[in-house]
Amino acid sequence: MTQKLYDALASAIYVSRLSLNGDSVDTDDKRLRASGLYAEWASGSHTKGEIYTANGQVWECFQSYDNAVYPDITPENAAWYTFNRLLHGTTPETARPFVQPMGAHDMYHAGEYMTDGGKLYRCKQDTAYSPTDYAAAWEVIETDT
Prior knowledge:
Blueprint: H1 3-20, H2 28-33, E1 45-46, E2 51-54, E3 57-61, E4 65-66, H3 80-83, E5 84-86, E6 96-97, E7 113-116, E8 119-123, E9 138-143
Parallel strand pairs: 6-7
Antiparallel strand pairs: 1-4, 2-3, 3-5, 7-8, 8-9
């Protein structure tokens, strides 16, 4: 079984269990756990609240845009961060690799987790900086993630 197929199956089981318990996918952490079900980002018209994957990460569109009008809004360009925000995990299981925040909309908040350099970190205070740039904002939870 390919990793992509395994991730989709695990995500479908997770969402089904939530649904059976009367719950929904309504937090970033739950969205990350269901990430195997989201489509890969593709150029086009995107609306606020849309969730997709790009570059191995899960993103939410927080400002609608259309690539026919704004072709530079792609995961490779800085304009991406003006319209999309990275989802951050609030548990060690949903930690994703660190991505440099570009503004207040995508900064890391206290209690969120991420990985960087083979280590799992928990954010101790809101920050837009990596553990290398501002170590006081992070604590190492475990190494060799």
